[in-house]
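Notebook entry, structure prediction.
Reason for the run: the old model in the group folder had no record of what sequence produced it. Starting over properly, with the input documented here first.
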Amino acid sequence: MEAKIGRFFESVGTFFSGGDQIPWCSRDIIAGCEREVAEAASGVSDELKNESIMRLSWALVHSRQAEDVQRGLAMLKASLANSSSPLQKREKLYLLAVGYYRSGEYLRSRQLAEQCLEIAPDWRQALTLKKTVEDRITKDGVIGVGITATVVGLIAGGIAAALVRKN
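New structure, fully documented this time:
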């Protein structure tokens, strides 16, 4: 019985906290990627420079800091036009979708995940992200309906109490 109660409270906590499976990235990893980009900018091949920028973009959109996520989004948007292969475009679209998810722009995130799936229909990461985004959209809708019902109930209760006092 105690285990069932524990699982219930855990599921309620996950519902309200948004327990998704998308990894987070620490400031230390971001700092390491920034050093790598700075080193790559000093004359090595363009391919190595692009790879280090992609790693930094990945780290930024997976950050817990909103300003890092926004920076990652800006980098990815700027580099999307330079994608030379469908694989590169898919990766950048996916990272943009993660960044928009982290920013709370769920509809844009879902749209980008769907674009990834147009390029690679069986790509598990994009499928998982799309499901995570859709679950979040559904959950936000349920919470919104609950808040609306509560407000309507409070207003109706207030009107009923005012009418009872009047009589």
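Summary: The two ends are 49 Å apart (CA to CA).
The old model has been moved to the deprecated folder.
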